Amino acid sequence: MNMLRYALLHLQRNLRSAVIAFACYLMVLAVILFVQQSALSRQQMLEQMASSLEVRGEIADSFGIQTELLMMDKSQAMMFLEGYSISKLIKDVSVKGNYQCLVNGEAVQLMSITGERADQTLYYDGEMIYEEGFDDSVWRTREAVCAVSTELLPLCYERDGSTYLDVTGWFYSTYYKEYIEAPMTLKVIAQAVTFNRVYCPYLMLQDFCAQLKGVTYWADSLAFTIKDNTRMDELRKLLLPYFGDSDIESAGSKYYTVIIKDAEYLKLTSEAQKSMEIMALMQPVLYLCALGTGVMLVVMQMRGRKKEMAVIRSLGAGRLRVMAQSILEYAIICLPVTLFALLVWRELSPMTVLGVWLAFMAGALMTIIRFTQIPLVKQIRELEE
Questions:
Q1: What stretch of H or E contains 8?
Q2: What's the pTM value of the predicted model, to 2 decimals?
Q3: How far apart (Å, rounded) are the C-alpha atoms in residues 190 and 273?
Q4: Which of 40, 44, 37, 53 is CA-nearest to residue 230?
Q5: pLDDT digits (tens, 9 = 90+) for 245-287
Q6: Which of 228, 270, 304, 358 has an alpha carbon 20 to 30 Å from 339's alpha carbon atom?
Q7: How far apart are CA 141 and CA 340, in angstroms?
Q8: Could you give the CA distance from residue 260 to residue 197 in angstroms, rounded to a whole number?
């Protein structure tokens, strides 16, 4: 009790020194808070970016051959995914078909899609051309519309205030046992950034083929958007037994390949992980800073207290008492700052604050031990001088 009273009395007498120690310890905690906040805010930003990314997947024939097994529209595609128990992780499905056609006698790829997501090469800004009131939902209708590549625009023509393109589809007929040509006129509503392609609604082309003898239209792939990026591992585990990997040349008995387009997502999550690793590496460095601050501060304080320590020891106080007295003073100084950090800076975990306090006190203890090890004779001589 007497030791505590003396410690409080000494702090009152040396208020300036106590305030300096208080401020230094507070500054150490503030620096740690700033570093930790910076790392955490960057990690949170990266995690938000990663979760907001729309990760896409695509399923196609593993041998690159169109088959009737892939013949489906958007609703059938969702049923196809339900058969593999992965529809619960999917929020949107698009279907894409691929046929040959002729435009002005030149061979062109005729792509049918149920939505823009089925083929990311479409865009709707810049120099696009479309009729007023255009909506992306047009790809899910049976309207005779299309989006064309830039180099095909000169082959389009104006009629009744709209832009049109004449296309000749080239389809194989099982009835005639040969390829047949079927002309169609499509209204141009948008521009595509790909080369030599014409995009049209999947259902429209499906209906068009139904009118031709022996022509069956099918899709060559379906695209889906993942509902929750954090469940990517779960999705991969569900896909693994049924689908081949597009990176593997031979898919074996797995008839379809699946491509998960999550490179950007993995990049962001990897960067978030690096932020956590950097923060983990910084923690010991910050504790060393706290330790160094404790050493530096106590060295400055103890140099001014040499005479006081010599008097106390000459009056009979032992080294342990002087040591305990000094360390108690710094514990009293650190206590309000520690409580302040725990109550106000909620971002700092109690373990972090405890670690800083222990490092700071360890530095102070090391210095106090060093000064109390000075022989009493030497201290008295310094006192006499």
A1: helix 2-13
A2: 0.57
A3: 41
A4: 53
A5: 654 444 444 677 888 888 888 888 888 888 777 777 777 777 7
A6: 304
A7: 64
A8: 24
